[in-house]
Amino acid sequence: MAYDFYGPTWSTVTNSHAALYDPSGQVSGSYGIRAWIQAGLSANKLVFGMPFYGYAWRLVNANNHGLLAPANGPVGSADGSIRYQQITEFITQNNATTVYNATIVSNYCYAGTTWIGYDGLQTISTKVSYAKQNGLLGYFAWHVAADNNWALSQQANRTWGA
Question: Domain GH18, which positions (predicted)?
Fold first, then answer.
């Protein structure tokens, strides 16, 4: 399970809840995988968990909308969780700006005071490639019902099979 690292109910700044890498610390999927392997678990017994949902944060200032921007709680649901299908609808309906961060391997989008961190197609592809290149048994998603017309599932499948 390489997600739920950050969320709007327990952090006062935006951040990726499922970063593959964390250049400044230990809060990432790759760090967790390395820790398990260094502890003696064989890579081929590990699967990499990816979320098909994100978290929506309320920005303190709509003009400060990057990673680690000040936020004051969730948007939408009680904990801010939002299905990938809803994220794509939000992007379309609000003409939201989308950002892919290749350093941490994560997506986010924003419109007004709403900021959403999530895994998009490129993120899923990079994470599945990471799992395959590092000899992991495979990957899993929580939860496929949150996908948008199987887009993330098909991307993961294509990447693993390539």
Answer: 1-162
Distance of CA 79 to the CA centre of its chain: 16
What CA dihedral angle connects 44, 46, 51 and 56, to 10 degrees? Answer: -130
Angle between helices 121-133 and 151-161 (to 10 degrees): 30
Q: Could you name the CATH architecture of 29-161? A: Roll (3.10)
Chain centroid to Cα 119, Å, comes to 4
Query: Using one digit for the tens of pLDDT, what is the confidence trace for 119-132?
Result: 999 999 999 999 99
Q: Considering only CA atoms, which of 40, 34, 45, 16 is closest in space to residue 138?
A: 45
Query: Quick one: DSSP state of residue 43?
Result: G
State how far the Cα of 98 lies from the Cα of 38, in Å rounded to an integer. Answer: 36
